[in-house]
Amino acid sequence: MTRPLIHSLEARYYTDPEIYKKEKEGLFAKTWQYAGHISQLKDIGSYFTFEIAGESLFCIKGRDGIVRTFYNVCQHRAHQLLKGEGQTRVVVCPYHAWTYELTGHLRSGPNINAVQSFDKSKICLSEVSTEVFLGLIFVNLDPEADPMDQWFPNVRSELQGFIPHWEHLAPLEWVEIPENCNWKVSVENYSECYHCSLNHPTFSTGVIRPETYDIQPQGYCLRHTTECNSLDQMSYDINSGFANNDKYSSWFLWPMFSFQVYPGNLLNTYHWRAMGHDQVVVYRGWFSRDGAENETVRKIAIQDRQTTVEEDIRLVESVQRGLRSRGYVPGPLVIDPKCGVSSEHSIQALQGWMRAAVPEA
Questions:
Q1: Rounded Cα distance, 33 and 130, in Å
Q2: What is the set of domains in the chain, with CATH numbers?
Q3: What is the rounded CA–CA span in Å between residue 313 and residue 284?
């Protein structure tokens, strides 16, 4: 029986500002999004601000050691509470000095006792679902969101098998990569290796064996697996002393984050921040023990930026230009029943999630 062709998404998914607006209001606010790293909250009262789906938020470490996330808005008359990052004993609104505990509960406010029946125990900052996932902080604006372990089954345990020292790791460097394309174009490029041999010779010959590369859905995760090139071809010493030190693997967490582990148990990450319907910034994270200087990690980061990253920028920006062409007709995806490096079955799964995110499109 002949299987029907599966065609790629229509161009409007990548070029229409209205679809991006719907993603911002829906998808971005109902999925797990990267906020920061636990090393940014070392002490009680440490905090940092950030933005997700157009909302200003802040993470803060409580006296009980719990990391909480709140909308960055006072419950009195809506002034924003915090800027940047720092440390505080309590959260004080700059407008009228309403003061909140680190748990978000109202502590005090000028002259509030003059108001009859004022019950400060009923006033609390609006909290956001938060998880610390192997040292990285994720948030979800959906109060009914399922836990990350349900979204991404087995990912936590698999990652612990590749980075058993995760609790000692912290970011050494963030490489900021602006791309003039829709965020989905960039994510799709990351989520297949059909293009790797032709476009990424360093990655294809220096790290992986392309003929063994495969990507499979795992809940809302795309799991990348491969065998590595012969170890004598590696450009650095991979003898870390941990298991899986001779392997490369990757876990893409829908919609905008990915863990990668290079041979030698070297953790690196991607996270995407959509800046508009045709602009995205990719943050490439490189980790070392306690964030300390590490010559090997620095060298790999430079090599990656000068090769794979630079090669991908050209690809995704060309795709975005092509999507604007009136001559583009979405072609069929190359779905090999045997999967493998030259199959786009991972794109089929990814585009299914994309369609579901904006069903009316």
A1: 10
A2: 33-140 (2.102.10.10), 149-357 (3.90.380.10)
A3: 13
3-state secondary structure of 167: helix
Closest CA to 252 of 347, 337, 179: 347
3-class SS of residue 109: coil
Query: First vs last Cα of the chain: how many Å apart?
Result: 31
Q: Which two tokens stand for residue 352?
A: 């299914």
Q: Tally Cβ neighbours within 10 Å of residue 128.
A: 21
**pLDDT, one tens digit for every residue, the chain (361 residues):** 567 888 999 999 999 999 999 999 999 999 999 999 999 999 999 999 999 999 999 999 999 999 999 999 999 999 999 999 999 999 999 999 999 999 999 999 999 999 999 999 999 999 999 999 999 999 999 999 999 999 999 999 999 999 999 999 999 999 999 999 999 999 999 998 877 776 666 666 656 677 788 899 999 999 998 877 665 666 677 788 898 888 889 999 999 999 999 988 999 999 999 999 999 999 999 999 999 999 999 998 998 898 889 999 999 999 999 999 999 999 999 888 888 888 899 999 999 999 999 987 6
Is 107 exposed, middle or buried (CB count within 10 Å of its CB: 0-12, 13-18, 19+)?
Answer: middle
Q: Which amino acid is at 232?
A: D
pTM recorded for the entire structure: 0.94
